[in-house]
Amino acid sequence: MNMSSEGDRVGLDTLAGARGSTDGRSAGRAAGAARRRRVETNTVVDELTLNAWCAEIETDPTRIRTRFPAAAREIGRTPGTSPEPGAERVEDDVRVSLLLALGRGLAGDPDTLSAEVHDLYRFGDADERRAVLLGLGRLADAIGDRAVDLLHDALRTNDPRLVAAAMGTYAARLDPAAWRQAVLKCLFVGVPLRLVAGVEDRADDELRRMVADYAAERRAAGREVPADALPFLPAPTQTTRES
């Protein structure tokens, strides 16, 4: 993960000032403030803390309950917010790392792993839920089909970032009918179909029929058909006028 030189300078300058203080407690507070500013304003990742948290979770999986929500604040986050469904964010990678540590800590106990993952999703905010969804593909072998209901929950929302995250590789575990409806949901909420894992391989005639019906409804209402729908539509027939 990339380091920000400007963020490093801010952090080092603040830390240097703290070292010059005669008050040890003030120095500690200044150092902590500098570290928090770096996390909040840069893509700097506190790798030492991340590794320590992963080791901690492997030893005591229940620690993820407090570490997962705090990850962006304490370890690293991408500055600002992005409405783009597929935007890559540092905090997603950090939280997925914690999920993988959870999987290692609960290896051979898929039911407990599923329970912990469900709680992280249920009690998490939108960013935390997105990270859970993104991590499911990496946990698929360990968790099996136990988290498919989380995909269904995300797909019932109109949040493009959650819908996109739900359509990663773990979505291969959706049954065909649910998967087709999920692809349509992507078209409805503006999730680019390039973010749907395996869409070209899994698309079938029934999906093409559904997309064609969707496109016909859009045209009848005088609305534009999303460009992502066009590859699934039959080629227009060409007619020649007889002279």
TrEMBL record:
InterPro entries given in the database record: EboA_dom (IPR047715)
Top-rank taxon: Bacteria
Biased composition (Basic and acidic residues): 1-11
Biased composition (Low complexity): 16-33
Spans annotated as Disordered: 1-35, 220-243
UniProt-recorded name of the protein: Sugar phosphate isomerase
Organism: Nocardioides albus
Lineage: Bacteria, Bacillati, Actinomycetota, Actinomycetes, Propionibacteriales
